[in-house]
Structure formats: C-alpha cells, structure tokens
Amino acid sequence: MKGMNLLVDNDILYKKRGVGMFVAQEAKSKLLQKRKEQFFDHYIIPAVREAKNLKLPKGDVISLMERGFDQ
C-alpha cells in the first residue's frame, strides 16, 4: 500500500473513489524524466569526478563515451 501511495504522490497513479486506481496519462514521460535525472546523478557525475581524478582531458572522456555507443 505504501508503494501505491508513493506512486499517487508522484502523479503516476490516480485514485477514483469507489472505482479504483489508474495510470496517469503522463506517467511514462514522468518516469523517463526521473530516470534521466537519476542517470545523471548516479553515473555521469561519478564518471566525470573519476575522469578529473585521472586528469583525463574532456575530449578524451567524450571519445570514450562515443566509443561506448559504437559497441
């Protein structure tokens, strides 16, 4: 029930009294936006921090990312 309420609080689900719960029309785009923000916070920031620790130039990091997309 706590999970369902969390989804309602985040406007992913909505309740119709006496009928049930339904998925909001914008649910998919909201979830994708949240995942993009989490991706930045959990992957990009730590990767940039590590690249700086290794003193990798920005161009080298971009080249590595491009290489990753080609695999």
Description:
The protein has 71 residues and is mostly helical. The chain has one domain (2-70): Winged helix-like DNA-binding domain superfamily/Winged helix DNA-binding domain (Arc Repressor Mutant, subunit A, Orthogonal Bundle), CATH 1.10.10. It is 68% helix and 11% strand. It is built from 3 helices and 2 strands, in the order αββαα. It has helices spanning 2-9, 27-53, 58-70, and strands at residues 13-16, 20-23. Strands 1-2 form a two-stranded antiparallel ribbon. A hairpin with a 3-residue loop joins β1 (13-16) and β2. The longest helix is centred in the middle third of the chain and has 27 residues, at 27-53. The radius of gyration is 19 Å and the shape is elongated.
Residue-averaged pLDDT, rounded? Answer: 94
Please give the count of helices: 3
- CATH homologous superfamily assignment: Winged helix-like DNA-binding domain superfamily/Winged helix DNA-binding domain
CATH hierarchy class name = Mainly Alpha
H/E element string? HEEHH
List keywords for this structure.
71 residues; mainly alpha; Arc Repressor Mutant, subunit A; 68% helix
Give the SSE layout.
Blueprint: H1 2-9, E1 13-16, E2 20-23, H2 27-53, H3 58-70
Antiparallel strand pairs: 1-2
Summary, kept brief:
By secondary structure, this protein is mostly helical. It is built from three helices and two strands; from the N terminus they run αββαα. The chain has one domain (2-70): Arc Repressor Mutant, subunit A (Orthogonal Bundle), CATH 1.10.10.
